[in-house]
Amino acid sequence: MTLALPSTRQEAWRWSDLSALPTLAEQAPRGGVIDAHDFWIGDGPRLLFIDGHYDAGLSRPGPVEIGRTGDASDHPLARLAGGDGWVLTLGHDHAPSGTIEIVHVATGGASHLPARITLAEDAQASIVETFVGDGWANRFTRIALARSARLMRTVRLLQSSGFQSIREEAAIAEGASLVTILLGAGAAGTRIDAALSLDGEGAFAEFGGALLARGDQRHDANIVLRHAAPGGSSRQIWRAVADDSATDSIAARVEVARGAQQTDAEQSLKGLLLARTATINTKPELEIFADDVKCAHGCAIGELDKQALFYMQSRGIPPHPARALLTRSFVAGALERIGEEAVRDAVLADAEAWLGEAA
Amino acid sequence: MSTRNEEAYAAVEEQSRYKWGFTSDIEQDFAPKGLSEETIAFISAKKNEPQWMLDWRLKAYRRWLEMESPDWAKLNVPPIDYQDAYYYAAPKAKPTLKSLDELDPEILATYQKLGIPIEEQKVLAGVEGSRKVAVDAVFDSVSVATTFREELKAAGVIFLSISEAIREYPELVKKWLGKVVPQHDNYFAALNSAVFSDGTFVYVPEGVRCPMELSTYFRINAANTGQFERTLIIADKGSYVSYLEGCTAPQRDENQLHAAVVELVALDDAEIKYSTVQNWYPGNAEGLGGIYNFVTKRALCQGRNSKVSWTQVETGSAITWKYPSCVLAGENSVGEFYSVAVTNNRQQADTGTKMIHLGKGSRSTIVSKGISAGHSNNTYRGLVRVGASAESVRNFTQCDSLLLGHDCGAHTVPYIEVKNPSAQIEHEATTSRISDDQLFYAMQRGLSQEDAVALIVNGFCREVLQQLPMEFAVEAQKLLGISLEGSVG
């Protein structure tokens, strides 16, 4: 398949840099022995994918099956992710034991992998996905949550080079809840795409995270969160940190359809620039067709608060640790939304590792 | 009511005696329908323009031919046939009416509410035989305008139609025309550059504080600026000028497309205040007819400590596409944008601003109030960009939307691009409606529902309205109430 990539002239891609993809798509993965040991958090079901291929030997999939997802998307990157992938289907009131962990290891080249998550009424699950290695990892996840189902997703984007593109499309029914928190650290370029639709009354969606970039790294998120039914609420909390000549871009849109009254949508996009040459772009967009709604968005971009730094120094904390402490608390604002302690600690540790390198 | 307000009303009344005096001379000949190099040569010849101006227009036209109409705005613009329009003088082809009784009763009612004298109503509506009145008014105001001209001349301020300026001050025009909004900036700017009919030229010399508010009302020779207006204002070092544009009375105009370009230049320590009240015909309740208002307005704050302040009250037009912007190139330069945009029935507005921070210590403030009612759509679209070398930039943006009714839409599309860590950028937005409690409180105090809505809406817009020169503010307040009539309840 020839690679047809969107251009920056297209509104949804105006801050993207996909220039690395054609080369990566041509290359073949190196393969070899991979040690994924360090990336497992708990003892629940786990799946290991190497360059998009399932490694049965090192996995214990629990309720997750490998097979055709049968989904197609017309999204320019997601449509590349066809074929076999992983499928999680949970029946009524069902919950797997423990957090499901999926580690994607890339060894160069390109890998495309679809996934499908279907939760029946009152079902619950928590999934952590971790991306490591190098190369282009392209993922497409389709999610359907039935009434009162609950899904907690955590995505760690930790590749040391290459590119990670993930696309999430979700339909959330009455009273169901979807929470997705991402951490973009590592050193690879990132494109995060999501189209979430709150289709049922009183549905809840949260999509946010922390994007940490240095060198000439680029994180680029484009989120569309649609309130299609009344009484829904949503949160998009993002924290972006850019150092050196890196760029973080976040375009987050809330759409309130006609009739989706009593919507409560909140967006908070904050950026922290650590260097002169770094860039942060944000676009907190609202599209509202109902009159009885609460939609607030806040956005702030700047450097570390000089007064806070001065205060800490006056208390005997040297400048360097003071900066690190403030940056850490800035980032934690988005990551503390992760519900499970073990997962939260692991993600905070990833962020910490990144921040430590800055020191 | 306080005496201050009485004075304001008196001032409005005073002004309104002159402001409709300017209608185009119907005997003027006009270029044939359609757009071609011949049409442009005709316009240029008609205006006795020098060769360089014609070349400039033709260059713009050739660029325009290669450009595409922008489609990124949240607007539904029907295809425009550029060959099915007149580009010179034919505008103002208002339907001739025998008496005011033939006028759309809605427009008539609005005239009455705004307190426009009956003779002026006739002029506005284009009633047969009313030209005499207009001529009288013109004569009247010619003398007024001349007195003002004398006073301006004494101060050294050049205030002319752009056609006159091209002839009388070619060097100044050549130096600045198209510098802030280049010909190829966008589709409509290119079109305007090719065919602009007339407009205003203002030059305020070094150190001069313009002795009066300049307004299009008080200008002769530029009556027919309607369709493709071109405005160029240059404030030299240390000068100040306040410029008012537009009018509050609704006007019928068969020109569907209005594509104006406004360029402002502020040099060291200069300040320009530009206020607009726009109330072009918005079309009827079903969205038929109405003006397309596709305007490019941009200011270059080139000098140190220069300042440009845009204030706009947009209530008219079927479709509005307008982003008054500031390029803050000078050190410590200041850009401001205060906007109220009201849409009702089937109106569509996509409006906002761009603040491009390039100079150290530059600051900008954006306050945007969008009010949507009926089946309308109102979008705020703004850009705040901080260049890598712009240290200590500050921006504060606030966009509030008010929705009246279930069928309208309010959208906010802010772009924030920051390349310098010392920048402090804040953006806030809210979306709300008039609560039943507010309405109930106002009504149990004896206000009718419409008055209550008008009061609450005026409160919502207060931060912007208080930026307007006083007489404009009074008119604008009345206008807001009228624009929203019938939208609640």
Low-pLDDT residue intervals, each spanning 5 or more residues of chain A: none
* H/E element sequence of chain A: HEEEEEEEEEEEEEEEEEHHH
N-to-C CA distance of chain B:
28 Å
Please give the order of strands in the largest beta sheet of chain B. 3-5-8-10-13-16-18-20
Look at the structure and give the mean pLDDT of chain A. 92
Total tally of structural domains of chain A:
1
- Please work out how many helical segments of chain B DSSP would assign: 13
Backbone structural class of chain B? alpha/beta
**Percent range for β-strand residues of chain B:** 25-35%
Assembly of the depicted chains: heterodimer
Domain unit count of chain B: 1
Note the beta-strand portion of chain A: over 45%
What distance lies between the first and last C-alpha atoms of chain A, to the nearest angstrom? Answer: 44 Å
In round numbers, the mean pLDDT of chain B is: 80
Envelope shape of chain B: globular
Helix content of chain B: 25-40%
Mind telling me the C-alpha Rg of chain A?
Answer: 20 Å
In short:
The complex is a heterodimer of chains A (359) and B (489). Chain A is mainly beta and 359 residues long.
Describe, in plain words, how this protein is organized in 3D:
The complex is a heterodimer of chains A (359) and B (489). Chain A contains four helices and 17 strands. Chain A has 359 residues and is mostly beta strands. In chain A, helix 2 crosses helix 3 and helix 3 packs antiparallel against helix 4. The longest helix of chain A has 18 residues, at 341-358. Chain A is globular, with a radius of gyration of 20 Å. In chain A, 55% of the residues are buried. The model of chain A has no long low-confidence stretch (mean pLDDT 92). By secondary structure, chain B is of the alpha/beta class. Chain B has one domain. In chain B, 30% of the residues lie in helices and 28% in strands. Chain B has helices spanning 3-19, 37-46, 51-66, 105-114, 118-125, 131-155, 162-168, 170-176, 187-195, 436-444, 449-460, 462-465, 470-483; strands spanning 158-161, 198-204, 214-215, 229-235, 240-246, 257-258, 261-266, 271-278, 292-301, 307-314, 319-322, 325-328, 334-343, 348-351, 354-357, 363-373, 377-386, 394-404, 409-418, 424-433. Chain B has an eight-stranded parallel beta sheet. In chain B, strands 9-11-14-17-15-12 form a six-stranded parallel beta barrel. The longest helix of chain B is centred in the first third of the chain and has 25 residues, at 131-155. Chain B is globular and about 65 Å long. At the A-B interface, strand 16 and strand 17 of A face strand 18, strand 19 and strand 20 of B.
